[in-house]
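check this one:
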Amino acid sequence: MRKIILLPLLMIQMSCVQEMRPIEIEFSVDVNGLQDVHSVGIIGEYQPMSWQHPISLNDEDGDGIYDKTITIQAAYNYSEFKYVLNDSIIELEGQGNRIVEFFDIKSTSYHGIFDIVKKDPNQTVFMH
């Protein structure tokens, strides 16, 4: 009897595994008005991002907007992240993470202002 119960439970657990899929996201963040900006990066979930090591964003035209397109491997329809200033200042301290959503699409973009969350569907903050 015990074997019969365990087998269906194991099958249910195995069917809950989400398939990873590549999502291309163009991230950009406006840091105009901030002092002593030496670098801007992004931390988050899903490879190649991580919460420990920021990925550098670029401001090639010097307009104060840093950006980079990153292809992540995602299991869900959203990804959480935060921007990082000078490799040590993590934005939105004490607040939730930013969320970029990508339902049934292969690429999207997220544009934000450092340390500011607007009431905009593309700039959602997830509160833990």
Summary: Residues 25 and 107 are 6 Å apart (CA to CA). The chain is about 10% helix and 40% strand.
